[in-house]
Amino acid sequence: MRKQMLALAAVGAIALLSACATDTATDSGSSPDETPTGATSAEVCAKYFDGGDQSLAQRVTDELEYDMTALTEDESNAMRSTNIQLEAVLRLAGPEDANALISNIKTPFQMADDLFKGTGDSIDTTGVTEAVADLESLCASAGYTAS
Q1: Residue of 4, 84, 94 lying closest to 46 (CA atoms)
Q2: Can you tell me the distance from the alpha carbon of 120 to that of 112, in angstroms, rounded to the nearest whole number?
Q3: Any idea what DSSP says for residue 94?
Q4: Given 16, 25, 87, 141, which residue has the most CB atoms within 10 angstroms?
Q5: Residue range 107-129, pLDDT digits in tens
Q6: Average pLDDT over residues 38-62
Q7: Are 31 and 24 a contacting pair, CB within 8 Å?
Q8: Taking the complete model, does pTM exceed 0.70, yes or no?
Q9: Calpha distance 111→130 (Å, rounded)
Q10: ∠ CA(30), CA(45), CA(75), 5° rounding?
């Protein structure tokens, strides 16, 4: 029995090592862990506004209506999920002005995440409405139209 377990462990280790040794280049020749060259304002806008009722923009609007002093577990989870999505938009490495606005919008969602983790003590939504309005303006200037 012990020999069988050792043999299975050895086969697993070999499979793991061979998987680690495989080439991770994609068909385009780029590695999946390359840093993106940066998104345009229109691409940042699309990630934020596209999706209708399921868009990040709609989630932000809906979740900012929560009572920030008494979040339920479901509300906290929703805000943490939105925080992750906003972080993904920031990782697009878009233009500085778009990233600054997304970062301002993200602040209360990060605060909700911190509160959940026990490292924060409140959620401040000040300035988010203005950041959303400024993002809408920036997106219009960039030629973005919601799909």
Answers
A1: 94
A2: 8
A3: -
A4: 87
A5: 999 999 999 889 999 999 999 99
A6: 94
A7: yes
A8: yes
A9: 18
A10: 100
Distance CA 12, CA 19 (A): 10
Q: Tokens for 87, please give them.
A: 């972080």
Q: Looking at residue 94, what is its pLDDT?
A: 87
Angle at Cα 59 formed by Cα 67 and Cα 94, nearest 5°?
A: 120
Q: How many residues does the chain have?
A: 147
The contacts of residue 111 (CB under 8 Å, 6+ apart) are 120, 122, 123, 124
Residue 6 phi, psi dihedral angles, 5° rounding: -65, -40
Concatenated DSSP letters for 23-92? ----TTS--TTSPP----HHHHHHHHHTTGGGSHHHHHHHHTTS-TTS--HHHHHHHHHHHHHHHHHHTT
pLDDT at 147 over 90: no
Burial of residue 112 (CB within 10 Å: 0-12, 13-18, 19+) is buried
**Cα distance between residue 52 and residue 60, in whole Å:** 12
Q: What gap in Å lies between CA 105 and CA 123, rounded to an integer? A: 12
The kind and range of the H/E element at 126 are none
